[in-house]
Design goal:
- Keywords: Signal.
- By secondary structure, the protein is mainly alpha-helical.
- It has a domain of 73 residues: Serine Threonine Protein Phosphatase 5, Tetratricopeptide repeat.
- It contains six helices and no strands.
- Helix 3 runs antiparallel to helix 4 and helix 4 runs antiparallel to helix 5.
- 4% of the residues are buried.
Length: 202
């Protein structure tokens, strides 16, 4: 009798532990959903795949798996786009750097010419010196205009790569400026009042 009672207790214990450890499709779905909410998408996909291994026809697990796989594909596409944009920016910066090197070489050449002109001016009369100074000023203004035009062209190229017109860029800047002003106005520091004497703080 004692043996039967022990066997019956053991069988009941095994049955209960099996019931406790037995997992339903809902259990897998719930664990996967918790992982998804915690932004642990890899673990969520792992739970879904385990659940589908035991319950291949469960519609909730299938739907969650499709959603997770779709989000993974979107993230990969975004990463590829970001990397492509970064590569484009690096290339444009490299080309701008080369233009800057060319400009600095030109400026060095202009400076050496200016130095030569100054050396030659020391032996000339004042009227010739003023004429040459005016010509140098005009040359310098022309060089500044050329630099500004090159910078504008580079900016237009950047805007084209971002599919923005200069008007759209100006609108974006204006809206950001307006938002910043609103934020500053809303968060102005309000004057504090001193507590009145004789009255409790509460």
């Amino acid at each position: 009798m004692k043996n039967k009672l022990t066997l019956l207790t053991l069988a009941l214990f095994l049955f209960l532990t099996h019931e406790i450890t037995a997992q339903t499709a809902g259990d897998f779905f719930n664990r996967a959903a918790r992982s998804y909410v915690k932004s642990d998408k890899e673990n969520a996909l792992k739970e879904v795949n385990q659940g589908l291994g035991q319950f291949p026809n469960d519609s909730k697990l299938k739907a969650l798996k499709e959603k997770l796989e779709k989000e993974q594909e979107e993230e990969q596409q975004e990463q590829q786009q970001d990397q492509q944009q970064q590569n484009d920016q690096n290339q444009s910066q490299d080309s701008e750097g080369e233009q800057g090197d060319n400009q600095s070489e030109q400026k060095d050449g202009e400076q050496s010419e200016e130095d030569k002109a100054k050396e030659g001016q020391e032996g000339k009369d004042p009227s010739q010196q003023s004429e040459e100074a005016g010509e140098n000023a005009n040359d310098q203004m022309d060089a500044n205009l050329a630099d500004q035009q090159k910078r504008m062209e580079a900016m237009r190229e950047k805007l084209k790569s971002m599919n923005l017109t200069p008007e759209q860029a100006a609108q974006i800047l204006e809206s950001l400026n307006a938002a910043e002003l609103r934020y500053i106005q809303e968060n102005k520091k309000k004057p504090t009042q001193r507590p009145k004497r004789g009255l409790p703080d509460w």
